């Protein structure tokens, strides 16, 4: 895989299990925060799945759409797109109703020094959205950052682990969850809190960041010595299918890959395939931000793209000089300063 076109085609290719499940979803779907890293490919995946299922449900999406070409691309794909600032209450209220909402809006990067905007996006806006779409099923994108660090041999935090967020970004994400939970109880709105880490495609993500450091012979920090990852296409599929598992009070679901992965091992794999000797600094801590997604596998089945496939696709992407988005995950961060 060497081109964006090939990558987008793979990300938006629906599985038979997704096609089956979208046929069971009742009503139109609105995606709020459509213009982020995952939103465009999720919308295309959903539209293709609906078309293959033979249903005529609408796919709608709202975003600022600072990238005009993205607005045009998605509109031409058959997505009903709305250019709005979701923090503008009038604009939010003016959006069409929908039986189903996938909420992807939020702020992470640049939190330090801009904390007020992060809290407005991550904790104030959810209340406005919950009131606007009180009669909808809502899948709320959240993060595994709300959990405490877990020991390497723990298998990661399950949904039963009490949140203990580190830093203002993670605290604001727990705020997002709590506000949505409040309105789920108050209004009886069916919701699912979708706790994700770390999704990737070939233009961004943990694997690309590690591989690039191997190629450039820059030191790789091992202090956050273990990670979880999941292919963005699988994460998007799970998000869509989660619309069938919304509950009141809000359901909670961890989403990531099945492995607890050593960062050093990943770097060594890339070194072998790219002809470089990785350089390391610091020693792995006994804890890391780790997520246990076994419950999601019981609901949806295992991810379709394996870790080895992700590694090999990343190698090919780097060798071919593939495009990059330029939004680092900061997966090494242990103090919560994003």
TrEMBL record:
The UniProt entry, under InterPro entries, shows: NAD(P)-bd_dom_sf
Classification via SUPFAM superfamilies:
NAD(P)-binding Rossmann-fold domains (SSF51735)
Please give the superkingdom of this protein's source: Bacteria
What is this protein's name?
Answer: Epimerase
């Amino acid at each position: 895989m060497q081109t964006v076109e090939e990558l987008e085609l793979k990300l938006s290719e629906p599985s038979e299990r997704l096609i089956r499940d979208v046929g069971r979803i009742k009503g139109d779907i609105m995606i709020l925060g459509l213009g982020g890293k995952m939103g465009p490919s999720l919308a295309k995946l959903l539209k293709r799945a609906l078309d293959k299922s033979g249903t005529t449900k609408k796919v709608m999406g709202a975003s600022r759409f600072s990238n005009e070409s993205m607005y045009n691309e998605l509109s031409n794909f058959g997505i009903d797109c709305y250019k709005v600032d979701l923090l503008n209450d009038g604009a939010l209220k003016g959006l069409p109703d929908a039986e189903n909402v996938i909420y992807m809006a939020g702020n992470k990067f640049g939190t330090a020094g801009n904390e007020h905007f992060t809290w407005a996006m991550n904790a104030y806006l959810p209340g406005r959205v919950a009131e606007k779409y009180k009669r909808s099923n809502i899948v709320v994108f959240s993060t595994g950052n709300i959990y405490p660090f877990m020991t390497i041999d723990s298998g990661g935090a399950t949904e039963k682990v009490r949140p203990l967020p580190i830093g203002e970004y993670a605290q604001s994400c727990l705020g997002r969850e709590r506000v949505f939970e409040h309105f789920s109880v108050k209004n009886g709105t069916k919701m699912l809190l979708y706790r994700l880490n770390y999704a990737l495609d070939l233009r961004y993500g943990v694997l690309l960041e590690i591989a690039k450091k191997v190629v450039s012979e820059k030191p790789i920090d091992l202090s956050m010595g273990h990670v979880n990852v999941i292919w963005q296409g699988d994460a998007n599929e799970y998000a869509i299918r989660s619309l069938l598992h919304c509950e009141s009070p809000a359901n909670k679901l961890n989403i990531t890959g099945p492995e607890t992965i050593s960062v050093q091992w990943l770097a060594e794999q890339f070194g072998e395939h790219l002809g470089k000797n990785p350089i390391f600094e610091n020693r792995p801590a006994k804890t890391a931000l780790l997520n246990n997604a076994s419950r999601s596998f019981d609901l949806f089945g295992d991810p379709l793209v394996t870790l080895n496939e992700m590694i090999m696709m990343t190698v090919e992407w780097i060798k071919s000089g593939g495009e990059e988005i330029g939004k680092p995950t900061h997966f090494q961060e242990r103090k919560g300063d994003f």
